[in-house]
């Protein structure tokens, strides 16, 4: 007999030997945790073991592990354990069960798995129940021994196992045409990326699709060790987190230059296509901005089935009203402007706030209006610094001794160009910035007032996403998986209030959504007296 204290894994051996007979004779009791507890307690007493030496939690865990190893369906395991089992433990069982099931199917496409039927003798009704169960198909080809319909109350939560498409729970349903789905995040990071990944993984897993996470954008398709399987357990708790668990990069366009790998020098784009097929991927979800989506479109033209998810805090992607990350960036910029109001008023200063947005003024416009700015300079309206100074001096004359000026990083004066920190080179996009300091210096000379400039920079990309961005990102991820399942590739999910729709990538890439000059918010801001330098 096993040493119960020294060898916990032996606790269930004698119980498990009797389990098939008990399962077919009295399976209803086993679907409740108290039924399993009673059975294990009786077995412990029969073995003459002191109950104080046995942990029911450990016993139940070992018992479930043995069931999974025997290819017992994970929903049956869940029903036996009861809903008191920790979710993380069930997720592990689900993952182990799925891995074993896929391995068995790969080895033998026919009827595989562990069947209780061949181990069971006649029941109390001389085998009638056994025959009925087998005739109903509760043991099916492919290694699935799902529960009878009346046991549905013990099913796993929806995020842990895919439910059958019909009301009968005898089989696992049709094998999806998409078995392995790749997902990557590219370009600059934005709050809500993890929310999209979470939605993609959970939606795909519930449909029986395995998700492969590719690290650092398309770089994850260069080397095999830069990808990993992502399960619902891996995305638990990331909804509220900024950044991306897969990593990202905004450089290294695969169509721009060759890249050296451990196997020699390969063209990046050819390598990506080759690795896509070598890894056995059936489709790819690409989450990124205008640059990443343009790359995705090129790969789509080369035969890679892709669905895009728009991502940018700049909100400059054509075809979608909003991108996740934009609301969070505006919220942070608005809070910063609110804080600057107090110090500007205390010292009678002009405060210039430079925000992101590249060649679109969405962040500056929304944050400026929300924060009560006195002047907003955006790329869509080249400004005259003298007109801006005149409006600010007028405020000073009627008693407002301070002013707030919001400047988009892509703004430029009439006849001028955008201010650059670094020009584009070798796959790197040009870096905008410095216009805030230039405006601050010009206004100080024109108004003779003390001025200060603040650059919010990458603070707008960090932190937890707002509730709006979390919901939008989740809807984007769910819709992307839906498009993959329907085979609608070469598309991008988009927000067309109140719906999430799809748009063709060729209608989106190569274009920038800027602030229309007849935008209602822009006209409202002008009506309020906010200066735009025109």
Tell me what you see in this structure.
It contains 15 helices and 17 strands. Helix 1 runs antiparallel to helix 2, helix 3 runs antiparallel to helix 4 and helix 12 packs across helix 13. Strands 5-4-3-8-9-16-17 form a 7-stranded mixed sheet, sandwiched between helices. Strands 11-12-10-15 form a 4-stranded parallel sheet, with helices on both faces. The N terminus is likely disordered. With 534 residues, it is of the alpha/beta class. Strand 11, helix 12 and strand 12 form a beta-alpha-beta unit. It folds into 3 domains: 147 residues, no CATH class; 177 residues, Rossmann fold (3-Layer(aba) Sandwich); 148 residues, Rossmann fold.
Keywords summarizing the entry:
alpha/beta; 4-stranded parallel beta sheet; 3 domains; disordered N terminus; 7-stranded mixed beta sheet; 15 helices; 534 residues; 39% helix; Rossmann fold; elongated
Which spans have pLDDT < 50 for at least 5 consecutive residues?
A: 1-12, 20-34, 110-176
Quaternary structure classification: single chain
Tell me the name of the CATH class of the largest domain. Answer: Alpha Beta
Number of helices: 15
**Strand element count:** 17
Shape: elongated
The CATH architecture of the largest domain can be named as 3-Layer(aba) Sandwich
Structural class: alpha/beta
The fold-level CATH name of the largest domain is: Rossmann fold
Portion of residues in beta strands equals 5-15%
């Amino acid at each position: 007999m096993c040493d119960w204290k020294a060898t916990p894994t032996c606790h269930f051996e004698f119980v498990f030997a009797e389990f098939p007979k008990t399962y077919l004779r009295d399976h209803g009791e086993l679907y409740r945790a108290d039924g399993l507890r009673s059975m294990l307690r009786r077995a412990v007493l029969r073995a003459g073991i002191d109950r104080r030496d046995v942990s029911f939690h450990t016993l139940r865990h070992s018992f479930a592990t043995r069931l999974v190893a025997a290819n017992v369906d994970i929903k049956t395991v869940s029903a036996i354990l009861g809903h008191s089992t920790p979710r993380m433990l069930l997720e592990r069982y689900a993952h182990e069960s799925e891995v074993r099931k896929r391995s068995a199917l790969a080895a033998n496409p026919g009827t595989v798995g562990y069947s209780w039927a061949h181990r069971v003798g006649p029941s109390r009704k001389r085998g009638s129940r056994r025959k009925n169960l087998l005739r109903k198909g509760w043991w099916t080809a492919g290694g699935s021994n799902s529960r009878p319909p009346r046991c549905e109350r013990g099913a796993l939560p929806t995020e842990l196992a895919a439910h059958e498409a019909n009301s009968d729970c005898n089989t696992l349903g049709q094998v999806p045409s998409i078995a392995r789905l790749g997902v990557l995040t590219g370009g600059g990071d934005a709050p809500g990326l993890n929310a999209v990944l979470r939605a993609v993984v959970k939606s795909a897993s519930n449909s029986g699709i395995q998700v492969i996470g590719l690290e650092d954008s398309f770089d994850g398709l260069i080397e095999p060790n830069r990808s990993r399987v992502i399960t619902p357990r891996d995305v638990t708790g990331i909804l509220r987190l900024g950044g991306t668990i897969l990593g990202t990069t905004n450089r290294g366009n695969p169509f721009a230059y060759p890249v050296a790998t451990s196997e020699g020098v390969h063209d990046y784009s050819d390598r990506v296509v080759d690795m896509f097929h070598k890894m056995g991927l059936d489709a790819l979800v690409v989450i990124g901005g205008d640059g990443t989506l343009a790359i995705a479109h090129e790969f789509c033209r080369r035969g890679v089935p892709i669905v895009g998810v728009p991502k940018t805090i700049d909100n400059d992607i054509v075809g979608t009203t909003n991108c996740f990350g934009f609301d969070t960036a505006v919220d942070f910029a608005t809070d910063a402007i609110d804080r600057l109001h107090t110090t500007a008023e205390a010292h009678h200063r002009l405060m210039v706030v430079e925000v992101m947005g590249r060649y679109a003024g969405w962040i500056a416009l929304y944050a400026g209006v929300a924060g009560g700015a006195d002047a907003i300079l955006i790329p869509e309206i080249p400004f005259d610094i003298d007109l801006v100074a005149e409006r600010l001096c007028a405020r000073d004359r009627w008693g407002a001794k301070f002013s707030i000026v919001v400047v988009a990083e892509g703004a430029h004066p009439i006849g001028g160009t955008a201010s650059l920190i670094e020009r584009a080179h070798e796959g790197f996009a040009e870096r905008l910035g410095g216009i805030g300091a230039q405006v601050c210096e010009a206004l100080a000379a024109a108004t003779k007032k003390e001025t200060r400039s603040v650059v919010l920079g990458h603070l707008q990309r960090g932190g937890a996403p707002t509730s709006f961005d979390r919901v939008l990102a989740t809807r984007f991820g769910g819709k992307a998986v839906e498009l993959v399942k329907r085979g609608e590739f070469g598309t991008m999910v988009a927000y067309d209030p109140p719906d999430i729709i799809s748009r063709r990538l060729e209608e989106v890439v190569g274009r920038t959504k800027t602030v229309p000059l007849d935008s209602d918010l822009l006209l409202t801001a002008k009506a309020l007296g906010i200066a735009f330098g025109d």
